[in-house]
Sodium/hydrogen exchanger (Polypterus senegalus), 676 residues
Amino acid sequence: MSSPYSRPLRGNVLLPACILLLFRLDQFRAEDGMEELATEKEAEESHRQDSVNLLTFILLLTLTILTIWLFKHRRVRFLHETGLAMIYGLLVGVILRYGIPSTSYHNKTPPSCSLKERPVPTLLLNVGNKFFEYTLKGEINSREIHNVEQNDMLRKVTFDPEVFFNILLPPIIFHAGYSLKKRHFFRNLGSILAYAFFGTAVSCFVIGNLMYGVVKLMQVAGQLMDKFYYTDCLFFGAIISATDPVTVLAIFNELHADVDLYALLFGESVLNDAVAIVLSSSIVAYQPTGENSHSFDAAAFFKSVGVFLGIFSGSFAMGAVTGVVTALISKFTKLHCFPLLETALFFLMSWSTFLLAEACGFTGVVAVLFCGITQAHYTYNNLSSESTNRTKQLFEVLHFLAENFIFSYMGLALFTFQNHIFSPIFIVGAFLAIFIGRACNIYPLSFLLNLGRRHKIGWNFQHMMMFAGLRGAMAFALAIRDTATYARQMMFTTTLLIVFFTVWVFGGGTTPMLSWLHIRVGVDPDLDPQPTSDSFQVLQGDGLQSNGGSKTKQESAWLFRLWYSFDHNYLKPILTHSGPPLTSTLPGCCGPLARCLTSPQAYENQEQLRDADSDLILNDSDLTLTYGDTAITANGACGRRKKSNSEEALERELEAVDHEVISRGTRLVFPIEDHA
């Protein structure tokens, strides 16, 4: 029998327990509310700091543009816009590094743990049944544990390397291909390919072997603190062989320097960027079997060669196919009626080429370069007049902003990057190695090329190409892509210093070097013909030297004339509205297909055989543009070309100027001996 007092007693016990439970729940809710509030404040502070970081770079670009205008107004050429952007980046980097106090570390003694394996990129922690995700940022120097790495500003202005490859590099590379002057480029294509492919490979192996000797010297001197393999030296040789003479080319363009020298330098820099990135990927793919993964292995070597050829050819094909697809879309649709949609599609198709190649395991730089060349050759002819202007201006602006952003970030990274390794021996050795590697590239190849060239590459051209081997955005982007190891960090620091020196010193000395080497300026690229024995001849000291005589059409550029004949008769009519109708070039059995692929505009434009960019082959003997057996005059008429009275007057004027070249208010007189 239960006691009458048991029930009230039980109630007295449960009531305080319920009150205590409710109190604890309220306490937990309050703590959760405080945590959520703190999280919101941190997110808001992070957003504000990101805005400040982006605003910093925008102000840097704005200041650079205003200073460029001042320099152009004052005709200052000793400092290019890229060098100016680097200086401003350096100043901001100094302020961020030393002018802003670093935040304190909340835990003065960081917790330690031992891992048998490499840390995973993402770490999940269970704290009180709450899971927190942490992302691996990289190794931190032990002596910087309590200051620099804790400064949020310094951490956030250090961009992810993928930003450079996926956002900043595509417009730079595409603009190089899209704005290519095809007439002068293809006129010197053999020499450009030799410098870009063989020259870059020679430079890579010369620099790599010399740097391996420097590394051994550092090891003997006790200056090498960690592993540095021979493959690392070759990798450094590959990335530092990527030339970027943007400063020199800008001055050439402003002074209207010799078009063939401009074509050689521009073509080499465009293609050797692509070769350098594929070459570096091939060196990374070199993995010998066995215990020593850095010894020479013939199988691994040929595998790397196969990787190089496969990546380059696959990337080339992908870029060309994307350009062809865009040309077909623009031809067989009526997008030209909507210029905004046409420009947007052109932009997206061009940019997607880079990302598609990277996603498929190829190289986006090569793909987007040849996509730009294909777009300029075919798709450009299908665009409306508004879209042609928009696309040219759009990619020109994107190229300008992206390039100056990268150079500004270079200056910033010298002070904000937290894992710099400055080795005086390695830096001095690198400067000597790139100088020797550039010399082994230019002079021997020029000698071999001159054996087969009618118009020789003179010593002054060779000296200028040697001088113009600047390093820039591509070398920096390849170096910053992987800074996880001791060797890669030393390469990144050295690459930064090399870019600074070459842009400031060699870029600033371009104008005096042009005058000292007696290189022509004030040349109109649209009117300057290839020098011949019958017309304006460039003598010793003016770069391209003629050895006299004339060539027939069968002797000169037969391979390219064959290609252009095929391109004019078949590819242009299929992919564009220009060229002769396919009904007149294809066999009669292909009549239905020819009528299907030929647009109505082709019948109206069949007399317009010449592109605005003059991408045809120039015959040296009679100064005619040839498509196979068809000779086309400057006004578009077919047949044998005769000189007009205006051209004869122009030649007489050229003979009378005594080699005086007028360049935008700057009169440079280059005395040349009379060999007659």
Notes: Residues 6-73 form the longest helix (68 residues). Confidence is low (pLDDT under 50) at residues 530-556, 609-676. The first strand starts at residue 122 and ends at 127.
